[in-house]
Amino acid sequence: MHLYKYRSFEANHIKALVNNQLWFSRGVTFNDPFDCSLNVPVTFIDKVGMMKFMKKQTLAQRFVDSGHLTRMQMEQISEQYLEDTEKLLLEGRYQDHELGWLADAVFDHMSRSFVHCLSQTGKNTLMWSHYASAHSGFCVRYKKEQLINSECIYKADSVNYDGQPISLIEQLVEPNQRNLPTEVLFKKAKDWQYEEEFRLVHSDVADGDDDLYRVLRHDVDAVDCIIFGFNSEDKNINDLKEKLSGRNIVFKKIVRSPSGFDLFVDVGRV
Fold it and tell me: 141-177: per-residue pLDDT in tens?
C-alpha cells in the first residue's frame, strides 16, 4: 500500500524530500477554513444521539418499560431539550450547556494538533492541478506502513467526507469506542472527497499560538517512487533525479490516455 504527496518544484519541497522529512502543520495554516479549526461543524446533540443517550445513560427507558412514561412523552422531552440547546448555540452561549466543557476540550485539542495530509491516489488530475503547479510538479510515493508505524504518529486514518457534524453527546453514549477530539481532525466537507485524503497526526501538540509546525524524519527507503507531472520540464526532472541519485527510487511520468482524459503512470517516459 502507498500514500502520495503532490508537490511543486519549490526549494522547500525539494529540500524536505532530499532530507527525508515530513512537515506537519496546524489547521490555522490550511487552505480550508472549515478544516481542523474552530469553524468545523460540531453539534452538541442531534435527535438520534439524544435518544441513544436517554436510553443508555438515563432512567427514561426504564420508565417507558414500566409504563410510567410513554415513548411519545420521551420524544417530547428530547425535542424540548434540542430546542433549548439550539437556542444556546444561536445566542453564542455554548459554554452554558452541560457539554460546554467537552466542546472546549475538542476545540483545544483540534486547534493544537499537527497534521500531515497525503492522498491515496497518484493519478487524480485535480490534485495535479491544485497541488503540483498545474501538472508541472511531481508526486512522491511513500510506503504507507513506513510512515504510520513511526513512534511520532499518534493517529493515522482516511478522511471522512460524510458531511455530518460531530455530535458531542455520542461521546458520552459510547465513551470507550470513540476518541472525539481526534475524530474531528478527520472530518472534511463532501466537496473535498476527490482528494481521497489520508492523514497523519503527530503525537506532539502546540505549546502556543506561534508554534505551527513539527517535522518527522522518515527512513530513506520510505520513498520508492517519484512521479513527474504531464508538464514537468526536463531540467527540473533531471535536477531532482540527480539529487536523489543512489537511492532505490523508480522515476515515472504521467501520461494521458490517447482516447480520453484518464491519467496513467508510465515508467518509460522518464
Answer: 999 999 999 999 999 999 999 877 777 666 555 554 4
User: What is the rounded CA–CA span in Å between residue 241 and residue 180?
Assistant: 43
Strand duo 197-205 + 113-119: pairing:
antiparallel
What's the rounded Cα separation, in Å, for the pair 258 and 73? 65
- Mean pLDDT (whole number) for 63-87: 69
pLDDT of residue 101: 63
**pTM (2 d.p.):** 0.78
Burial of 252 (0-12, 13-18, 19+ CB in 10 A): buried
Displacement of CA 264 from its chain's centroid (Å): 26
> What distances in angstroms separate CA 92 from CA 86, 89, 95, 212, one per listed residue?
10, 5, 8, 28
Give the Cβ contact number of residue 117 at 10 Å.
18
What is the rounded CA–CA span in Å between residue 268 and residue 253?
8
Q: What percent of the chain has pLDDT over 90?
A: 50
Please tell me the distance from the alpha carbon of residue 229 to that of residue 11, in angstroms, as a whole number: 17
What is the spatial distance between Cα 139 and Cα 126, in angstroms, rounded to a whole number? 13
Going from the C-alpha of 147 to that of each of 1, 8, 144, 155, the distances in angstroms are 11, 21, 5, 11
Q: What DSSP line would sit under 141-159, residue for residue?
A: EEEHHHHHTSTTEEEEEEP
Listing DSSP states for 230-263 in one string gives TT--HHHHHHHHHHTTTS--EEEEEEE-TTSS-E
Cell 460540531, residue located: 42
